[in-house]
Amino acid sequence: MTSAEAAVMALQDHAVLWSVGEISASEVVDSACDALVAGVDTPSLRILAACTRAEADYDVDDLLPPALAELGLPLPVGGEAGQEAAVRALARRMLADELKPWELTYRIHRRFGHEVPLAERLAELDDEYGMLDDGDQATAHVDAEVTAEARRLAAHPAVPAEPTDPTR
């Protein structure tokens, strides 16, 4: 994967995480800036990247959809598909060492509980972390299980494609 492809995937993940309230609008702007630096360039992406931190909370909602559209990326979807996309994006963040395994399970459990079937195993593993003693050797085992589950989840696309109309 080229750095431009990685930057686009990161922007899509940030859009999904922002849409479920997991990250701030300024983090989406930072991701847009990273995409520009990686060589991805569209007019709407430049406008999004130019937002100040103060403007981000007000403007990302309007600027993100056209930036994603110019890149051919689907908008973050709501409902279960959007939640699943967010779970996968968080898993990729953990695999990129942006989150520790216990942080991934905690965030998933806190945000989605046991309500998203795709994330059920991570919620269960968060429960297991809660039963461990500090310094317990079993922590390494749970960390390994979380990492394996994160790899499984991260293997899927960042955001599901929009459903197609089979009559067309």
Structural overview:
The chain is an all-alpha fold and 168 residues long. It folds into two domains: 68 residues, no CATH class; 76 residues, no CATH class. It is 67% helix and 0% strand. The protein has eight helices and no strands. Helix 3 packs antiparallel against helix 4 and helix 5 crosses helix 8. It is elongated, with a radius of gyration of 17 Å. The C terminus is likely disordered.
The largest sheet is:
none
Structural class: mainly alpha
Query: What is the string of SSEs from the N terminus onward?
Result: HHHHHHHH
Beta fraction of the residues?
under 5%
Number of domains: 2
Radius of gyration: 17 Å
Helix content: 55-70%
Gross morphology is elongated
The number of helical runs is 8
Record field, number of beta strands: 0
- Uncertain runs are 160-168
- The whole-number mean of residue pLDDT values reads 88
Tell me the distance between the termini: 33 Å
What characteristics describe this protein?
67% helix, 0% strand, elongated, 2 domains, mainly alpha, 168 residues
Topology:
Blueprint: H1 3-19, H2 25-37, H3 43-49, H4 53-70, H5 79-95, H6 101-112, H7 120-131, H8 138-154
Helix pairs in contact: 1-2, 1-5, 2-3, 2-4, 3-4, 5-6, 5-8, 6-7, 6-8, 7-8
